[in-house]
Amino acid sequence: MHETVIPILPCRDIDEVAAFYGMLGFDTTHHQTRPNPYVALRRDGIELHFAGIAGFDPEQSYGSCIVAVDDTARLFEDFAASMRAAHGKLLLTGIPRITRPRKRKNTGDVAGFTVVDPGGNWIRIFRSKAEPDPAALADSAALADSAAPADPADAASGPLARALENAIVQGDARGDTRQAAKILDGKLAKPGDPAPVTTLVEALVYRAELAVRLGDLDTAERLLARVADTRLDDSQRQRLSDALANAADLELAVRSAAP
Which of 72, 142, 70 is nearest to 106 (CA)? Predict the structure, then answer.
């Protein structure tokens, strides 16, 4: 037996949603305005349906679904390339936006990322071959991003590493950007922290990302300058490739948002 479940998610404008997903490579398979606005979208095996609701506020949306795919990294890069082609940058703030793949301790380190679409729906994309622990799914109302950390040997130990893990849960899973920033600030402000340089850079980059989300461009610029000034050997740069790519996207976001 083979079952298929297709979520119907809310939005304020089906054409706005269709255009956004069209940018990401989805085809429109059904579109109607009467008797009610409704659009169906598909990309390969991913199928999403949306109902247009008059007066709907995406900021207040609780819409969410989990999408299981074989290769989250490749899909993220496809989406990122499409965003860069359409907008000249990744959409990292506001609605719509995308988050980068990164590990989340409350999902059992399942790899994935999140797309927040124009309807305010959180589309949470995970690897199909590594199912999240049901207890972890129940624990979080917002399941999202994961990717291998820069230095696996250091990821689970040390105050800064633990603070980063907790900040990611708050910032990427629960959408509480301010609380995530507060968690990291409490550790980054302490001088003489013996955290490995790879952990430090990851924390600085993520805190810069939070600053961009909050519209605090001065803080983001300061943190990114600190990353750029950090000495790294070739091995460390390789392990930090995702974080450094994120830093480059954040620098572009800061420049484009500057008056």
Answer: 142
Reported pTM? 0.81
- Name the DSSP class of 173: I
Do the strands 64-69 and 122-127 form a parallel or antiparallel pair, or are they unpaired? parallel
Q: Are residues 141 and 19 in the same domain?
A: yes
Distance in angstroms (rounded) separating the CA atoms of residues 230 and 227:
5
**Using CA atoms, how far apart are residues 235 and 93, in angstroms rounded to an integer?**
31
Could you tell me if 91 and 164 lie in one domain?
Answer: no
For the chain, give the longest Cα–Cα distance: 64
Instruction: Kindly state whether residues 136 and 170 are assigned to the same domain.
Output: no
pLDDT along the chain (259 residues), means of 10: 87 97 98 96 95 95 92 93 94 92 69 91 84 42 36 60 91 90 90 82 96 94 96 94 93 85
Token pair of 31, please?
């579109």
| Residue partners of 247: CB distance under 8 A and separation at least 6 | 205, 208, 224, 227, 228
User: Could you tell me how far CA 97 lies from the centroid of its own chain?
Assistant: 8
> Same structural domain for residues 182 and 124?
no
- What is the CA 174 to chain-centroid distance, rounded? 11
Q: What is the total count of domains within the chain?
A: 2
Which residue range forms the structural domain that includes residue 240? 150-259
